[in-house]
Amino acid sequence: MMNIAAPVDLALRRICAHDNSAIAQVIREVSAEYGLTADKGYTVADPNLDELYQLYSKPGHAYWVVELEGKVVGGGGVAPLSCSEPDICELQKMYFLPVVRGKGLAKRLAIQAMDFAREQGFTRCYLETTAFLTEAIALYERLGFEHIAEPLGCTGHVDCEVRMLKTL
């Protein structure tokens, strides 16, 4: 007897207001898993964490969530890099629960975010992460991000020692 896997209901879509608490919970869970604490300036310290829809509804901003069978299991976005040159955007808040990691969704989302950024007139994309997120760094390198020494903008992520930039 052949074992056929059931189809998976997976969606990548723009964030809606009703997604706020679900994506905030995903970010908190993944942050706790990796020890990314608020006292070190990671995303969990962001005062807008529970209002991502409102934050990413501004011009030049966009955020996407990944849904698995109707449940938000990940997300990521792009926004203008604060305190920086106007042509630089930042890839932000890329977090995925273990159930969807390794399925190409982060790559798909990052490409979608960079396409959006290009359409908005950005010519460079910046990101910050930490060295122990090796899978994420490998993905960013495959996408053409290059390591840079000095931080750009004023993100407040003091413990994000890996900084990368890509020409769009």
Quick summary:
By secondary structure, this protein is α+β, with helices and mostly antiparallel strands. Helix content is 26%, strand content 27%.
Please tell me about this protein's structure:
The chain has four helices and seven strands. The chain is α+β, with helices and mostly antiparallel strands and 168 residues long. It has one domain (10-167): Aminopeptidase (3-Layer(aba) Sandwich). The chain has a seven-stranded mixed β-sheet with strand order 1-2-3-4-5-7-6. The radius of gyration is 16 Å and the shape is globular. The termini are far apart. The mean pLDDT is 90.
**Number of extended strands:** 7
What fraction of the residues are assigned to beta strands by DSSP? 25-35%
Going by helix content, strand content and strand pairing, the class is alpha+beta
CATH class term: Alpha Beta
Corresponding CATH architecture:
3-Layer(aba) Sandwich
Instruction: State the end-to-end CA separation.
Output: 50 Å
The radius of gyration is 16 Å
Helices, by number, come to: 4
Order of SSEs, N→C? EHHEEEHEHEE
The CATH H-level superfamily is Gcn5-related N-acetyltransferase (GNAT)
Pfam families: Acetyltransf_1 (PF00583)
GO molecular function: N-acetyltransferase activity
Keywords: Transferase
Protein name: GNAT family N-acetyltransferase
Write the layout of secondary structure elements.
Blueprint: E1 10-14, H1 20-34, H2 52-55, E2 62-68, E3 71-80, E4 88-96, H3 105-119, E5 124-129, H4 134-142, E6 146-148, E7 162-167
Organism: Dryocola boscaweniae
Protein name: GNAT family N-acetyltransferase
Domain N-acetyltransferase: 10-168
